[in-house]
Amino acid sequence: MSEHLSAGRYCVLCPRGGAGITALFGSLGVSFGRGSNSTKSTQQRIDGLIKSASTVSPSTAKETNHGVGDDRLVDTGGQLGVGSWNSSPHTWHFGHASAAVVHFGLFEVVGGIHRVQPSVFYDEGENVFCVFQGYLSNLEELIDRYFEISPDSRSSSPTAVVMPKKTPGEKAAELVYTMFQQVDDPLVLLSELQGQYAFALVDGDRKQVFAARDSSGKENLYFEIDEDGGLTISNERLRVNSSDGIGLVAWEELLPGHYLSGKPVKVHQFALTPAQLTEREYNDALDDAWDDGDPSYHSKRSVSDGTEDAVPVSL
User: Is 129 buried (19+), middle (13-18) or exposed (0-12) by CB count in 10 A?
Assistant: First the structure.
């Protein structure tokens, strides 16, 4: 468990309340906490996270109720447009005691090219927040399909027209939200995303959360569903106070190929994990060998489950 909200880490806090939700994706959603007690508890948890950031004090943290801007950079006059880095965590509040805190970091992605991680999309008008980490290999294709583009702009790249001056990660975060609005089935939405990613989306007005991790597992995602049904999400096992103020969050890993949604919030699977995929490929290979009558395969009883498995043996 990391003791600090170090650069590149984030935490999304959605305490449970008693109110119902507006339906989206059928039962997709989490009802957020209400009242001054929940709000005070959330702020205390945020304060604790900010204090844990090793290079920043609470007084320098930025309260953000708009999209991420150039305040992440103190000076852009250095090499590759990157100078002194503003390491202050940023926070967003969505109402109903829900909030997010992000400590942006600057990381080298390849050959001297640096990118800000994680990436955030926030729409103040819609009160929607999405934090995204990783990449989508079919980003431009999906933007072309899910965003309305004027005919006069068709000669340019759809990505450049719809989302000028945004990094690929910021474009991906906005794309996930746009698809969230347009696609009725979360399984259909997730089947469209190609790449290595993890994200958490909060719709403050509809009081809903949707989070997922692709099947490769390259990007981390952890969560806790407390006994009241409240949800905490992070990309690291941070030291975070529990929503009731007693003890710490007991993190669980969201396995690759799984997502969080529903009321009450539950874990769902949309793709095979790497271990499941390896097992399936192995079994398929054995089936093919038997179908072909390969004599190098013989029956061997499995010690673990007592079943007959075909395994290769040397003759």
Answer: buried
